[in-house]
Amino acid sequence: MARPSDSAPRKHKVTVVGSGNWGTTVAKLVAENTQEHPDIFEEDVQMWVYEENVTIPSDSPHHAAAGDQPRKLTEVINTYHENVKYLPKIPLPPNVVANPSLVDAVKDSSILIFNLPHEFIGNVCKQIKGHILPYARGISCIKGVTVTEDKVELICDYIGETLGIYCGALSGANIANEIANELWCETTIAYNTPPCDQRGKDGENGANGDHYRDSRGQISKTQLTPVPQEYPPLEHDVLYKLFNRPYFTVSMVSDVVGVSLAGALKNIVALACGFIEGHGWNMTAKTAVMRRGMLETIQFCQEFFPETVKEMTFWESAGWSDMIVSCTSARNWRYSKMAVERGVSLQEIERTELNGQKLQGISTTKEVMSFLKARGVQDKYPLFKAVEGIVDGTFEVKDIPVLFRHQ
Amino acid sequence: MARPSDSAPRKHKVTVVGSGNWGTTVAKLVAENTQEHPDIFEEDVQMWVYEENVTIPSDSPHHAAAGDQPRKLTEVINTYHENVKYLPKIPLPPNVVANPSLVDAVKDSSILIFNLPHEFIGNVCKQIKGHILPYARGISCIKGVTVTEDKVELICDYIGETLGIYCGALSGANIANEIANELWCETTIAYNTPPCDQRGKDGENGANGDHYRDSRGQISKTQLTPVPQEYPPLEHDVLYKLFNRPYFTVSMVSDVVGVSLAGALKNIVALACGFIEGHGWNMTAKTAVMRRGMLETIQFCQEFFPETVKEMTFWESAGWSDMIVSCTSARNWRYSKMAVERGVSLQEIERTELNGQKLQGISTTKEVMSFLKARGVQDKYPLFKAVEGIVDGTFEVKDIPVLFRHQ
């Protein structure tokens, strides 16, 4: 089992993998906290940046000094403490250290925060596998799950199993720019501390890093290396101190499945709410659809993950709050509303408004429905089914209320 | 026990007590259903109207016929099938029968629907006591509860105990004018069918109308007279048929306490949301406050009504949907937002904007806090407490996030 050579107390080193608008925002708040808790964390926070050349905008205060020459983004961030490309005008703490080398950025870090677009995570995990501490732990800020006919895989489980570590999830009603500007909101962190990391406890079936129960309540393939005793215990309290800010209120839960699925299935419901409003119904109808969508979300979790899901999870920020915000202001909602208002298909909207970019809600809907159909239970999810029908043009928005008739 | 003289099948006669904008809307939809279910209900629906003289507006299609002379409101409703004063331009089914006599309107009715302002219910119950069928049953569309230092009394329990009958509650994210215009929404009906009315069952401690367990799970003072066998059984299915419309989707539950308290406590949360938005925070902060407010609502119900409250009730339309709509478009929210934006007190807003009319959220807040303080548990309800503090000027809106710091 990997152990530090000396047994002197050690601090957690933190790396944020990703530096987009949300990744940089998380790096900012985490770096503020490592400064406030020097006893627990190393002050410097590594942030992996996909290197590119940027020109500092002429309206930037740094333009005078930097000039018009293209500069490396990492160099700009480390010199001016601002991510001029992805989070302009937000001063970053100087202890956010931009690093263009993925492998170097994660080296020796005991806490890895994954915050980059869904589609890049596979490649990133491949590159860092074998280059991280065997006892590192992860937090995924990437919402959602991968659903196929065969299975539902949480992104944090995918990360954990690929890297041979434990990985939790952060999700909530969060808008990066608001948080970067320190406008108050809440979030939820789901982290089911592995038994081998629980101090002063008899880690039931895993005290020595044996296979533990994963998010699905099943015995994980992964054999964990416990976090060495020299580190502050990597449990809820330490993660709370790493993420909670006066403007970013954290709730800690253990239900990783509920948090992850709520963050994914809400996209189906957001499409439904856009359809409803596009059709001319008001807030009362929209809340009815949000409510039904949440009930189907809870039902989905309880049907397929009965061992681990807790109903109270859906009252967390990652549950109802994120549902409301996603159904009120997010992309899936906006463009599905537009489609109905214009009387065109969502595919048409993707072409004309999103230059062919895909709406996540559509793929989530199709994936979830294929999973349900493979089990013959799609009729137990009338709203999800209707959204697929509307996307396919086989169901009409005006018929949504019919779904909710008394059986 | 009162029984009809003959034992021929009988139908339920329905009376709506109240004829304001919401009362008339409910009379309309109920009358549509009595027409559709002539086997269960008498077609005519009595609607008690507080008599007054009205002049038909010149833009009304009935003006030509009616002229400028003041006419009795009941006569106008029964002639033109429109409540020109409280629900103008909405055609009512001809089987809505306006009746100026309260006692005559409730005579022989087995289903009484109470739908009038909170403050009139006491007087109305006094007047009809002894003039209703001993086996009548009630549905209260009046939201809320009466809270004093000593106790929390549900309006439907007050009605039931005053009249010696059982009374349930209808509550949801409902806007009368939208429903009158047949814009789709949902509602919740809470009705805990008394054992003595349950057909083909051995009514546990109440088969013969003995004292039954009331909403608080306590043995009720009321000795019920069972609904005679000649009537269709007055259970969930019959109430569903009476209220559900294609544009008004009904969910039936048994948790009268949860539904009633959610409908009352939401007013405290609506004030908080107004404060938050008035202060300049956005949707993400508002959902955080709604969420915390709902958690305190659930906690309140579970602390004081543990026997009967079910957590799933708060996912009903009367729970989360009504909370969202109340915190997005209702009076308490609108005026508390205005108060913070203008930097004045709510009392000042009541004076200048509401001609001294009171905001219900303020009295609900003070009543609930006095109940909590009398039990020394007010600190377990930080949001409710903060709202009282803001109303009193002893707490600042900007400090709301501080309430939610980790303990």
Automatic annotation (TrEMBL), chains A, B:
Glycerol-3-phosphate dehydrogenase NAD-dependent C-terminal domain: which residues? Answer: 255-400
Q: Where is the composition biased (Basic and acidic residues)?
A: 198-215
Identify the InterPro entries for this entry.
6-PGluconate_DH-like_C_sf, 6PGD_dom2, G3P_DH_NAD-dep, G3P_DH_NAD-dep_C, G3P_DH_NAD-dep_N, NAD(P)-bd_dom_sf
Catalytic residue list: K266 (proton acceptor)
The reactions it catalyses are: sn-glycerol 3-phosphate + NAD(+) = dihydroxyacetone phosphate + NADH + H(+)
Q: Name one GO molecular function term.
A: NAD binding
Q: Where is this region: Disordered?
A: 196-215
Keywords for this protein: NAD, Oxidoreductase
Q: Which GO terms describe its cellular component?
A: cytosol; nucleus
Q: Where does substrate bind?
A: K143, R331, N332
The enzyme's E.C. designation: 1.1.1.8
Q: Which family does it belong to?
A: Belongs to the NAD-dependent glycerol-3-phosphate dehydrogenase family.
Protein name listed in UniProt: Glycerol-3-phosphate dehydrogenase [NAD(+)]
Which species is this record about?
Answer: Corynascus novoguineensis
